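subagent[fold] <- orchestrator: predict structure for attached chain, return tokens only, no commentary.
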Amino acid sequence: MKRAILVAAMLSAGYGGRAQAAVGCIGSDSEDCRWTATDFTLQASMASLQLLDLMQTQATLRLNSDRFEGNPLLGQHPSPAKLWGLGSLAIVGHAAISCLLPSGWRKVWQSVGIIAETKTNVTNAVIGGGVRLALPF
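subagent[fold] -> orchestrator:
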């Protein structure tokens, strides 16, 4: 709870000394809220890594009944519908939060997500015995 309050306070205080509320970029045309090519590249990279994670998970669960999903929100053996439904929601949710944040915080948010998803994808590849990909159908 203390961490959540700290994060909320940091976001409310703004980035770089500027008074920028956490939701200040909705409908704003300020320079700090405009997306750059770097922002689009980071967000596309994040979405690609999330998609790779979904495909790896689907393939691993389909081919190895002794393997299980580590995300407690999905459960150990999620159905393809649950996996892809919540996975799609995560992709859209991450992008939506990115849209809310001013430039500096947006890059931090995207970079942390990319690092976490990269770690997850590497772990999936090691546990799953390589990179196997599967679509939901």
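orchestrator: received. Logging for downstream: Residues 37-63 form the longest helix (27 residues). DSSP finds four helices and no strands in the chain.
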